[in-house]
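Propose amino acids for all 177 sites.
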């Protein structure tokens, strides 16, 4: 009698464990592959609700990362956190679109953005569907470039995410390399 109870308990535990794994695997949480240009660059991902945060660390200040959606669904919002001292240029490229942004090191910082195409180079203004929201997030008291500690937080535009499909590339250049 004890053996049958033990078997039932073990079988129940096994079924619960398998069911829990299947639920997580089917949750649709995005899983990305990443390939960086420089071996010292690091890219990490954090999924919270419908947002994915992508942290980029680049000791040299110049680099790139190709990202591809391996499984799951694209998040509603993708936020880059570029842990750099400055942002001379950020370039987002997909098969459909290429956008650049820069944050000046003057006070106050000026943000400039452009859409690049084979035949044109068009400035963007806030409110444009491809405009990236960029915020300087310092760990020190003031938002001053060069950042001793902190990062540039860049919210990717919905239109870029939708047109990118399952892959895009990030390129960055820091003022202070």
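Proposal:
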């Amino acid at each position: 009698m004890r053996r049958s109870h033990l078997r039932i308990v073990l079988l129940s535990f096994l079924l619960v464990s398998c069911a829990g794994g299947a639920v997580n695997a089917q949750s649709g949480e995005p899983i990305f592959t990443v390939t960086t240009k420089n071996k010292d660059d690091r890219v990490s991902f954090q999924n919270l609700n419908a947002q994915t945060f992508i942290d980029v660390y680049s000791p040299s200040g110049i680099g790139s990362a190709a990202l591809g959606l391996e499984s799951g669904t694209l998040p509603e919002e993708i936020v880059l956190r570029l842990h750099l001292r400055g942002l001379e240029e950020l370039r987002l490229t997909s098969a459909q679109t290429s956008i650049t942004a820069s944050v000046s090191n003057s006070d106050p910082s000026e943000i400039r953005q452009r859409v690049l195409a084979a035949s044109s180079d068009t400035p963007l203004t806030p409110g444009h569907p491809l405009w990236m929201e960029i915020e300087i997030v310092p760990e020190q008291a003031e938002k001053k470039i060069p950042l001793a500690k902190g990062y540039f937080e860049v919210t990717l535009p919905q239109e870029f995410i939708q047109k990118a499909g399952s892959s895009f590339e990030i390129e960055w250049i820091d003022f202070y390399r």
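Helices lie at 2-25, 158-164. The longest strand covers residues 62-71.
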